[in-house]
Design a protein that fits this description.
single chain, about 250 residues, alpha/beta, 10 helices
Length: about 250
């Protein structure tokens, strides 16, 4: 049996003028996690918010009492230098630090925004470092990245270097409201077949219209932005998303 359904609304679609209350309300309405999209204007063309915003909304949502528990802040780091920001986001209240594979293979080993380094980091080094900072580690792949780049990482016998979650993007990262790319679901299926107990997240274009495809493929962590925050009844939408995943476990 695959892991339980986790519904992680993306606060990129929330009301920024009342963001703390929106986060609290969404958890009360049935969300498991909050998905927090961090964009730097370099790795992706858009910019969103940084650690200070995470710090401000953290008091509005109780910290999870267990790993992957309700209230998890799932920070999706669409940034060019992911290692530089690990400590800042840990201090801000991040629970799961999900960096991009594509950034980890091309960025430096510098450990703070002010640092410079000639050394390079790597996905395995990043995962170990995130775990050392007492956070869960996630690794994300863009649509243009083949899933088999993850096999060596996921098959690693060193547990400290194995991610707690894989995120398969079902849109090109950088903007909300894009059309769901069903072409990415074979990646999810391949992951689920090889790693039945892995938390597999999908992000981009998820709604009541597309959830069945994602659930059939084996995704259990569902990111939905406008489908939740734009709904007349967010609780009902999240319940339907959850039910679609649970029926296929």
């Amino acid at each position: 049996m695959s892991p339980p359904a986790i519904i992680a609304p993306s606060i990129l679609s929330a009301d920024f003028a009342a963001l703390g209350q929106a986060c609290s309300d969404t958890i009360d309405q049935g969300a498991s996690w909050l998905h927090i999209d961090i964009m730097d204007g370099h790795f992706v063309p858009n910019m969103t918010f940084g650690a200070p915003v995470v710090t401000k909304i953290r008091p509005h949502v109780k910290r999870p009492t267990t790993a992957h528990g309700v209230g998890t802040f799932d920070c999706h780091m669409m940034i060019a230098e992911p290692k530089k920001w690990v400590k800042d986001f840990q201090k801000a209240g991040c629970d799961l630090y999900c960096f991009h594979y594509e950034a980890a293979i091309s960025s430096t080993a510098a450990e703070s925004p002010a640092d410079q380094s000639e050394s390079k980091t790597s996905p395995k080094e990043m995962i170990r470092y995130v775990h050392e900072q007492r956070m869960l580690a996630g690794i994300a792949i863009k649509p243009d990245t083949p899933v088999d780049v993850l096999w060596d990482i996921l098959d690693n016998p060193t547990q400290e270097e194995v991610p707690d979650m894989v995120l398969v993007m079902t849109v090109h990262p950088g903007f909300g409201g894009q059309k769901f790319m069903a072409s990415e679901l074979p990646k999810v299926t391949a992951l689920r077949q090889r790693y039945p107990n892995l938390h597999i997240e999908v992000d981009g274009g998820l709604s009541e219209a597309t959830i069945d495809q994602a659930a059939d493929a084996g995704a259990n962590v569902i990111v939905a932005g406008s489908a939740v925050f734009g709904a007349k009844d967010p609780a009902d939408v999240m319940a339907k998303l959850r039910d679609a995943v649970e029926k296929r476990r």
